[in-house]
Fold:
Amino acid sequence: MTGIFRFEILSQDGAARAGLITTSRGKIRTPAFIPVGTAATVKAMHPETVKALGADIVLANTYHLMLRPGAERIAMLGGLHSFMNWPWPILTDSGGFQVMSLAKLRKLDENGVTFQSHIDGTRYVLTPERAMEIQDLLGSDIAMQFDECVRLPCAEAEARRAMNLSLRWAEQSKAAFVAKPGCALFGIVQGGAAGAMRIESAKALADMGFDGYALGGLAVGEPRMVMLAMIECVLPWIPCAKPRYLMGVGTPDDLLESVRRGIDMFDCVLPTRAGRHGLAYTRSGRLNLRNARHADDPSPVDSLSSSAAARNYSRAYLHHLVKAGEILGMMLLTEINLAYYQDFMQDIRRAIAAGRFTDFCDAAKTAWRTGETSGKLDA
Amino acid sequence: MTGIFRFEILSQDGAARAGLITTSRGKIRTPAFIPVGTAATVKAMHPETVKALGADIVLANTYHLMLRPGAERIAMLGGLHSFMNWPWPILTDSGGFQVMSLAKLRKLDENGVTFQSHIDGTRYVLTPERAMEIQDLLGSDIAMQFDECVRLPCAEAEARRAMNLSLRWAEQSKAAFVAKPGCALFGIVQGGAAGAMRIESAKALADMGFDGYALGGLAVGEPRMVMLAMIECVLPWIPCAKPRYLMGVGTPDDLLESVRRGIDMFDCVLPTRAGRHGLAYTRSGRLNLRNARHADDPSPVDSLSSSAAARNYSRAYLHHLVKAGEILGMMLLTEINLAYYQDFMQDIRRAIAAGRFTDFCDAAKTAWRTGETSGKLDA
Structure:
């Protein structure tokens, strides 16, 4: 691997920024949407198609991969990029979030978390040091600090305890991080729904110094305005020359409103999960292909899409595939959604570069209202 | 649609024949393997990939499509080719076999079958006339007569009754068939495991005159030698200038032995179904990717395959995908298997053309024994 990890801001429009992250495995155009490849596969997609649709980077989950097939095994097989046939950048989370949401019999203390695999009950320990080691074994290009994420709403004392623990784990993660040229470690701002606590977390992380900063523990049940308020609180306190990553978000409208406030990176299962459940994201809003009104509709999902899947198959056929539970339905709708998300990010980047981001937001929101739904998905 | 349906035998090697079927939607190289696209999709495959792997034709099931989404709906949407985005030839079965194996509360009489949908219990009637109408609505290039297929073993009286009924339905099917230029109707030889009855059926169908002749009711539980014996009985009695289609068969070894006896066409769910269950067909025999011995194996399924899926992903990764129940595992293994089957048919055609079919059979069987299993799958 060669080169260094760096971030350049190419243009700004209000608080919105368009930029470029350079890693040893390739460049990432920002604002970036990162498709989720949980178990070393973006579900129902060939990796080369994910790339062709415009993704510069994918996310893989430390929790899932440490359980199956195992980080040491992936390292022995040449690393995650080779394993999943994706030679471009990979961001790995630290496992903390999924330990909380998926694992059984969790026991958390100052050192880390002991838990049982949700697959076979095997006992594991995850500490800041082990989370860093696993991400190094995987060959991550952007690693995340180990943190504790609480569900919202959450008592302030509980949020404070988790925030402070996450700060101590941030220091330990940084100390344990195996720095390689062109690779990065991001800190994660916690603090629940309390602005003051979020700011405290952001300032402490900024003092430690990370290659990028994430907002964690959002989009976990709180009202959307809380999420946007937390972004507004936090961003002034993290170094503006570093990439800002909003984890686990979101709907197209969430992306617009977060970019408007200065976010550079997103990941979310929404386009892929929705595709497996019969939902299509389009410029005219969201379509539910399960709906019987599509049964006789010969029109494609979007005749102007960059995605062949959106142009070449009728809504009637997609409706049929979804109703019949056919895998091709999941394949085509996942592709349609990832194409929509990546085209949307490209349009956002162009709008920022042209200084017309506000107009772009207005036009996108108007267009969503012409379709079946508002373009938002609450599930 | 233009042109006429025709079959040319280009070369023979013993009883094995290599030829070319011309339909209005394209040519079919024989011996041909027809991937099964039950519900208007070859499961887990993009149609353009099915074509790229070498398929000249796919099969679609009348029974499944009449139930969902409905033949009249498909016709209104422009026909099955447009519906499933497959502009090349399509063979449709007549529904008879699946009514027997899938439908609930069947009632069979001289006129046809009354049954309930296995999906929602709706009552349907299928007669020779309706089976022809449905295949016409779908826009089939090769339609099959309506027949009754019995499970083997079967009492001789029962096999005779079904065979005679199938012959009457053959006449009715032929009378009801909507002939279009470049499209064909095939008769189906029945008669259980009794050679004399099979010959009687074949002679009667040959007298009626069809565009091609199928052997039905085989590979339904009988020993493989019975199937091969039935082929040997029947083929001398059907016009040698017409294509001969062995329905629902089979393993690579079944294909070899049937081609050796003069069969020109096959369809089978085996490569696609096996792919969805973790099995890969290769020149070195069958691999079960579920097997733990693949967990650390960095080698591809077949580095010399024409399929990128067989060359570019490790056995370790495929094992992981299969164990994790990932859709990509089904996609890649289905592709690997269809590529193997189509390459195999191409090799068979070349071997026949070169007059070295027997040597090819010996070499293929020897190569299968070098792998994990014998290349045969009994499931």
Notes: The CA atoms of residues 290 and 306 of chain B lie 23 Å apart. Residues 374-379 of chain B have pLDDT under 50 and may be disordered.
